[in-house]
Structure formats: structure tokens, C-alpha cells
Amino acid sequence: MRKHSKSMKSKFTSIENQFLNTFFSGLYISANEFIAIGAKVGLKMGMNTRELLIKELLNKSDEQGNLGEVTKLLNDLVQARIDEYNSLSRDYPAAAPILGALAQKANSTRTLLAREQRGNPYEQ
User: Which end of the chain is more exposed for a tag (fewer CB within 10 A), N or C?
Assistant: First the structure.
């Protein structure tokens, strides 16, 4: 009989999928960056796949009550990338259409994070 690995259930699936799929988010957040954000809020996270790290980061911070701080840190990271895209667009005008599309996708990621930060009024 095969043992199936126990997958962590998550109520943050839309955010996780957004960060894991660069096509939708317009950015790539490395495993090390997820670990660094976890460390800033007191979560000890070992090296793992990006998928497991983002799940762990969001779910454990929710359990500890500092999800708002984590979403703010993620938002700051996304904003820094948007700023880089805008700066590169000015320096390399030929790449502006592509970088503009990436910045637009990254802005949608910020919107998703802001929605999560406000929370669902029906879950109260």
C-alpha cells in the first residue's frame, strides 16, 4: 500500500496560485525571499519548494495572528518589483511594453493581497 503525502489544506489558494504562477503575477518570488519574510515575523521555515513555503508562510502566520504583517511585507516586495519594472522601462524604452505588462500583472497581485488583508466580512 502506498503512502500518500499529506498535503496542507489552505484557505489562501488564490494567493498561493498567484505567487506560484509568474504568468498571472508578473513576478518571481524566490524560496529564499519567502523564508526571509517568514523570519521577519518570527516564523522559522526550512528550505523547501516555493509551493510549500508560501503555504506555510500564509497558514502559520494566520494561526499566529500576524497575517496582516505578512501580507504587508509581501505587498512591499511586490511594490519594489513594480518600481524596478518602471525604472527599467524608462532606461530601456524598447522593453517598456513587456515590462509594463509585468507591472500591470504585479499590480493585480497587490490588489489580491489587499483584498485578503481586508478579509471576508462573512467569515467573522
Answer: N
Write the DSSP symbol of residue 123: G
Residue by residue, pLDDT tens for the chain (124 residues) are 444 444 556 688 889 999 999 998 999 999 999 999 999 999 999 889 999 999 999 999 999 999 999 999 999 999 999 999 999 999 999 999 999 999 999 999 999 888 877 765 444 4
d(CA 38, CA 77): 13
**85 to each of 54, 63, 75, 99, how far by Cα in Å?**
23, 34, 15, 6
**Contact predicate 82/25, CB 8 Å:** no
